[in-house]
Amino acid sequence: MGSQAEDIFKKIRDIPYQIPLKTKEPDYCCSGKHFELKKSLEKLGYKVRYRVCSFRWSDLHLPEKLTGIPHENDSTHVYLEVYIDNKWKIVDATWDMGLSSFFQINDWDGKTDTRIAVPVLNSFSAKKSNEIMLAEDEKTVEADLKTSGSFYREFNKWLKSIRNNSEPN
Length: 169
Hints:
Blueprint: H1 2-13, H2 30-43, E1 48-56, H3 64-67, E2 74-84, E3 87-91, E4 122-123, H4 126-135, H5 138-166
Antiparallel strand pairs: 1-2, 1-4, 2-3
Helix pairs in contact: 1-2
């Protein structure tokens, strides 16, 4: 199972991270990527659960041109826990390889923990994490976009510029 799981992890990790700016856009941020990874790993027979933690955008040390855009500083981050060898292992496929000049990119060997992609303030229980994931709906997303949509748009552009600068000319 391990090698297939590693391949799936890499494939999903390397989907360019992007926060959706409309409710109908594909979700390639942490929640969307981990929704797909969870589904894929469960098909392979793994026991998988969501985990949600809180973090602050300001703790990512983003450029001033981003931090000056009005947005909610406190946010949540989604990752997974996979049950392997009688223990829950952290698996986080958030940042894609194109962002390696700014973020630490996780590799996963199919057996051990990865790092969580953001500085964690508070981790929610597995039960609360699942409730948070189930509670997300269009109204919640639209309210978030109303508050932080301009920031997300510029964040996505900035990520794209990092990827473009890291590619060979």
